[in-house]
Amino acid sequence: MDIIKIENLINTIPIGKKREYLRDTYINGITNYYEEFIDDELDYNDLVVSDFKSILYSKNNIVKHLKLFSAEKLSKIISKYTNKKLSVLTDSEARNFIIKYYSLEIAKDTFEVPFLELKSKCNNKLHDFQERIRRKVINMMFSQEKKKFLIHMPTGSGKTRTATEIIIDFIRFSSSSSLLNERMKIIWVAQSAELCEQAFRTVQELYNLKGTVDLSFGNYYGNNDLDKDIVNNSAIIFTSIQKLLLNYQSPLWESIRNDNYLVVVDEAHRSVASEWVKALDFFVENKSVNLIGLTATPGSGSSENHNTNNLSNYYNNNKISLLDDKYSEIEKPISFLVKEEFLAEIDRNDIESKTIIMKGTSTDSSGKIRFETKTLNQLSTDPKRNQTIINVIKKHIESNHKILVFTCGTDHNFILKNILKANNIISDVIDANTTNRASIIDSFKYGELNVLLNYGVLTTGFDAPKTNVCIIARPVESIVMYSQMVGRILRGPKNGKGNKKNTLYTIKDNLNHGDYDELFNSFNDYWN
């Protein structure tokens, strides 16, 4: 069958009908141009042929007109595909046969409309219990104009992370309200260089992701010094209390104080010590300055109430602990966090020591027990006691566990290290004199070192989530210190990729600290 050209198909349709397919503006524009510049008469047939595809797909009368004025030719097109008569076909069916005959199908888009996810997927959101603390602090700070807070969270539950989000919010709220100082300073105070470094890395990483204005970071701990130009910029300054105490009255820190609006104190239970108070008061005596303390143990751990009451008073009794979805304080925070796998379940083992301490302890002015050097030496050199520690280590080395040991002293570190070496077990030592702490800790976290012996260093600021075993092989003079040691193995699967279950051994000489939930809540009666 001869192909019927499009122009032949539409040729018999009257011109008036053809004009219906073309928009008036389009016709007028073409007509005006022809009258001005072209001598030939405008051929409406050519216009319809050139735009036939779009005209055919549009909702107009062209198919009705073809069925009426070009019935014979249209019947020949339809007969190629069907024996049906033109008169029984709907306009839509006739249009489909015309499209097929002239290969006028419109290609479908190759891309698919993406599925619309109706829930957000925040990559850096807080856990619910952290988020509630953030909300409550910000609400109290900006709606109720409270200035001092103590955030009470268990070790391993993310105090630094939560505080960082509060800092970011503080910067945003302050810049949108009355604090338009473009040299605003925030000071983070911590006990040690390790704690300062840990806080600096967390705050810098999150601020780079979420911050809205550029600011400077100042590191004033260890061998680091501040660039004097920092006074001219908005900045977050991380300082150890030791360096701050020596220098807070210098002209540089005087300038920093003039632009300071927030002080964050890590391990805040220490902040009521007389020297700490002097330095902190230097900044927070200004009524525009906010103070946030962070602690897992909101008390001194002494047998006296004095320091604990002072801590409560210093933070205006604004203690904020873990909250449930009704913003009521969670009665047993440790149990809650373990159940939800934010903290690890602890398999606790108390080992009764055969070494009896009859004398060699004293009590200081605050009521704390102090173990004299001769007492610690007695414990360090007792062969049966050391063999008990070695046996525990050997048991867990077979399972390739990471084991952290708190020893009685520097000499005890090396005694155990050499005994372990004799048993073909590699270990390493960290104490106050260790100069390569970072490399040893990295080897313990990521390398082949499975036993880390330490004295007086790794109770705070040490983060190794995959640590499986903690051995407290020394007498502990305070609830605060004991709970901080236990905290080294508290990270669970949902918080820092820790373990679901870890093991704690306590060598019990003369001191029993009781249940850890009891430890954590032991200071609650002192808070209003």
Strand residues, percent: 5-15%
Name the shape in a single word: elongated
- The strands making up the biggest β-sheet line up spatially as 3-4-2-5-6-1-7
Task: Count the DSSP helices.
Answer: 22
* Intertermini distance: 99 Å
Topology, element by element:
Blueprint: H1 6-10, H2 15-19, H3 24-37, H4 44-50, H5 52-57, H6 62-69, H7 71-79, H8 91-101, H9 128-142, E1 148-152, H10 159-176, E2 185-190, H11 193-210, E3 216-220, E4 235-240, H12 241-247, H13 251-258, E5 260-265, H14 274-284, E6 290-295, H15 306-314, E7 319-320, H16 333-339, E8 345-352, E9 361-363, E10 369-371, H17 373-381, H18 383-397, E11 403-406, H19 410-422, E12 428-430, H20 437-446, E13 451-454, E14 469-472, H21 479-486, E15 501-508, H22 516-521
Parallel strand pairs: 1-6, 1-7, 2-4, 2-5, 3-4, 5-6, 8-15, 11-13, 11-14, 12-13, 14-15
Antiparallel strand pairs: 9-10
Helix pairs in contact: 9-10, 10-11
Describe the structure.
It is a single chain. The chain is α/β, with parallel strands linked by helices. 41% of the residues lie in helices and 14% in strands. It contains 22 helices and 15 strands. It has helices at residues 6-10, 15-19, 24-37, 44-50, 52-57, 62-69, 71-79, 91-101, 128-142, 159-176, 193-210, 241-247, 251-258, 274-284, 306-314, 333-339, 373-381, 383-397, 410-422, 437-446, 479-486, 516-521, and strands at 148-152, 185-190, 216-220, 235-240, 260-265, 290-295, 319-320, 345-352, 361-363, 369-371, 403-406, 428-430, 451-454, 469-472, 501-508. It has a seven-stranded parallel beta sheet, with helices on both faces. A six-stranded parallel beta sheet has the order 8-15-14-11-13-12, with helices on both faces. Helix 21 (479-486) links the parallel strand 14 and strand 15 (501-508). The termini are far apart. Residues 301-306 have low confidence and may be disordered.
